[in-house]
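Re: the 153-residue chain
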Amino acid sequence: MKNNIWFVVACILMFFVGYNMNDVAVSFPKYKVAVVDVQAVMEKSKDIQALKAEQDKNTKELNTLISKAQNEILNESDRTKAVQMEENYRKQIEDKKNSIDEQYNKKLVQVSTKIRNLISEEAKKTHYNLVLPVGMVIIGGDDITQDIIGKLK
């Protein structure tokens, strides 16, 4: 009889512990998840469009320099002078290309940081705990892409 009473007390105790554990689990805050199509945001960004236009302009200038170098080297009759011109143009082209790439990467980082900060601000303002790129989420999450694009303009 004594064992049955202890068994009943243990069962009641376990019931209350389990019930309280469930209560604690329910009281944890739920995560509010947002998704952003980063590619669409980048494409709509005026800064990115300006950066692409500048990169195209710089690439055309570089191609013009290459064409000029080729023509001058081909038209040079003195072989040693042609080799020297080729070396000079190669260094000039390489320096220009490195400069263009460095400027592009620097500006791209600035624009990416600006967009990331904008997404972060929007998430905090609308009380999202987690923001993921659209490609990482199969289902769920509130799409805030249009809100971000609207704030870019």
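The longest strand covers residues 33-36.
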